[in-house]
From TrEMBL, chain A:
Residues 133-228 form the FecR protein domain. Keywords: Membrane, Transmembrane, Transmembrane helix. This is FecR domain-containing protein. Signal peptide: none annotated. Residues 274-342 form the Protein FecR C-terminal domain. It comes from the Bacteria. The chain crosses the membrane at residues 107-125.
From TrEMBL, chain B:
Pfam families: Sigma70_r2, Sigma70_r4_2. InterPro entries: RNA_pol_sigma-70-like, RNA_pol_sigma-70_dom, RNA_pol_sigma70_r2, RNA_pol_sigma70_r4_t2, RNA_pol_sigma_r2, RNA_pol_sigma_r3/r4-like, WH-like_DNA-bd_sf. Keywords: Membrane, Sigma factor, Transcription, Transcription regulation, Transmembrane, Transmembrane helix. SUPFAM superfamilies: Sigma2 domain of RNA polymerase sigma factors, Sigma3 and sigma4 domains of RNA polymerase sigma factors. The chain crosses the membrane at residues 188-205. Residues 130-181 form the RNA polymerase sigma factor 70 region 4 type domain. It comes from Rhodocytophaga aerolata. This is Sigma-70 family RNA polymerase sigma factor. Belongs to the sigma-70 factor family. ECF subfamily.
Length: 345, 206
């Protein structure tokens, strides 16, 4: 679909756009981020359209737990099943029983906060906003933070931080994807926090480490210094201290984790546009191709995914990477646009 | 809620209910009662009317389950059926209601809010008034289409079916409403610009 001549209200009425604003996923995120990058003149229109969609949150008049019970019992007795009343889980009932005006007041306050914030953005006073860096598929970017810390952002990743870094508070950044951090220790000993979308926060004073948080997994590799991980496990938080050379990997979304020694050179090779395979499975390489280059990979036989590879390949150009991979490991690799097929010898 | 049905498609769940599965029927009620009631309450401020309509709807569904046609969108089916029921009920209650059955007996009242992660203590009733004005200027059909689209995430085709109008009309209702709201949103910004520059001016004076 061509969006070139769309006004803010046209975007805000578009189902694919609404999906991106309300329930962003990798498909909508990839499409719209690329669209914004290729149409920089439309940035204001997109922002206004997002605000419109945000504005259209209509008020909730949910029934109370008592009302639901009453309706349920009426239905049960009128359909001749009065004896089998199923009660609702208490927790859910509590949530619904919250007085209507409480959430209304909260929403009103939140709404006013939104208006004042958007106005400030609109005025160009970006005090409340975050600075965001997006890397495209296949692109690596090095960013210097206001405190002098350096961040190398891997492909298809987003780094955000607040503009108000004045040295009196914690330094906080938000990461989606993968990045290497070289954090400067400040005389004021301010903490440096990396938040991920997962249930993980990395807390440091001054050190170098790598954070990876994508669909295929979440892991932190510490090169030098010391970091503390705060892992959210349901209601409680677990803290894990890491030593240099260690990797902590989260086990799915459960909050459990596995700690092991790793070769940090291998884990950080992406910074030098290189991928080092050290008994790396084909499945891991496929994840890199999909997550860092936005490719869709099909594998001829499932056994191939288990194949372990040793060696290295350059990653600055995806075609060079694929042909190096094919040559070194004797694979048949075909690429057609975003589709890549890999077959054994 | 019965976990067994969460993996079912709408078509399969509906068929199970039509075959007389009580658990499937209960699951449908638990799953949709909140959004149905929420939608219904926009038509009237009287909670009892909506409670009645929702429970009557489910009782009738159960009684006529064998006769119902298959559907692959239960939410759409329930919204459409509830809407017909509410409008019929409101026109019956409307004592002078000889002239218009669909048009004048019901209203559709919404307020807009914005859920943002940033919470501030700042309150300004003027901006709130501007937004309320903007919403009040929308027609009830525009408000209803907005609610179905942005709160209930229904598709244009489904909204057209529920409101018994063409898909094209739904597009027109929504884009018209958005254009109006955009205009008002800009006014709100200007009013905020004024109030914030006033604050800076006062700060400057002090």
């Amino acid at each position: 679909m061509s969006y070139t001549h769309y006004q803010a209200e046209d975007f805000a009425a578009d189902e694919f756009f609404i999906r991106w604003v309300k329930t962003p996923d990798s498909e909508t995120e990839a499409f719209w981020q690329e669209w914004i990058q290729t149409h920089p003149a439309q940035a204001d229109t997109i922002r206004e359209a997002r605000e419109l969609v945000g504005l259209l949150e209509t008020n909730k008049d949910f029934p109370t737990a008592g009302q639901i019970n009453r309706m349920r019992q009426h239905i049960h007795s009128r359909t001749g099943r009065a004896g089998k009343v199923i009660s609702m889980p208490q927790k859910q009932a509590d949530q619904i029983a919250r007085p209507w005006y409480q959430s209304w007041q909260k929403l009103a306050a939140v709404f006013l906060a939104f208006l004042s914030c958007s106005a400030l953005i609109w005025l160009g006073i970006n005090r409340f906003t975050k600075v965001a860096y997006h890397t495209a598929y296949g692109q690596i970017q090095t960013i210097q933070l206001p405190d002098g810390s350096m961040v190398t952002l891997n492909a298809n990743s987003v780094l955000r931080y607040s503009r108000t870094w004045d040295g009196t508070r914690d330094r906080e950044v938000w990461l989606e994807g993968e990045a290497f951090f070289d954090v400067k220790h400040l005389k004021t000993h301010n903490r440096f926090l990396v938040h991920t979308q997962d249930n993980l926060t990395v807390e440091v004073l001054g050190t170098t480490f790598n954070v990876f948080e994508r669909k295929s997994g979440t892991r932190v590799v510490l090169q030098t210094g010391k970091v503390k991980l705060n892992i959210q496990q349901g209601q409680k938080q677990e803290q894990v201290l890491m030593q240099p050379g260690e990797q902590v990997e989260l086990v799915e979304k459960t909050g459990r984790y596995a700690k092991k020694k790793v070769n940090t050179q291998q884990a950080l090779a992406w910074k030098a546009h290189k991928l080092v395979f050290d008994n790396t499975s084909m499945a891991e390489i496929v994840a890199v191709l999909e997550e860092n280059y936005g490719l869709h990979v099909t594998i001829a036989s499932p056994e191939l995914l288990q194949k372990k590879l040793v060696g290295s390949a350059p990653t600055h150009d995806v075609d060079v990477f694929l042909s190096a991979l094919a040559k070194s490991f004797n694979l048949k690799i075909n690429r057609n646009g975003k589709e890549v097929s890999i077959a054994g010898p | 809620m019965n976990r067994k049905f969460t993996a079912y498609t709408d078509a399969a769940l509906w068929q199970a209910f039509k075959d007389g599965d009580e658990e499937a029927f209960d699951f449908m009620f638990e799953k949709y009662v909140q959004v149905l009631y929420n939608y219904g309450r926009k038509f009237t401020a009287v909670p009892e009317i909506i409670e009645d309509c929702v429970q009557d709807l489910f009782v009738e569904l159960w009684e006529k389950k064998k006769l119902l046609s298959p559907t692959d969108s239960i939410k759409f089916y329930l919204f459409k059926a509830l809407r017909i029921r509410i409008i019929r009920r409101l026109s019956k209650d409307h004592t002078f209601g000889k002239e218009g059955i669909d048009s004048d007996v019901y209203n559709f009242a919404i307020t807009l809010s914005y859920e943002s992660k940033l919470i501030s203590q700042q309150q300004d009733t003027h901006q709130q008034k501007l937004l309320t004005q903007a919403v009040n200027q929308l027609s009830k059909r525009q408000k209803e289409a907005i609610h179905l689209k942005y709160f209930d995430n229904l598709s244009y085709v489904e909204i057209a079916g529920i409101m018994a109008i063409s898909v094209d009309s739904v597009y027109k209702l929504i884009s018209g409403a958005l254009a109006q709201l955009k205009k008002h949103m800009r006014q709100v910004y200007i009013s905020l610009l004024w109030s914030s520059s006033l604050i800076y001016f006062l700060l400057y004076l002090s």
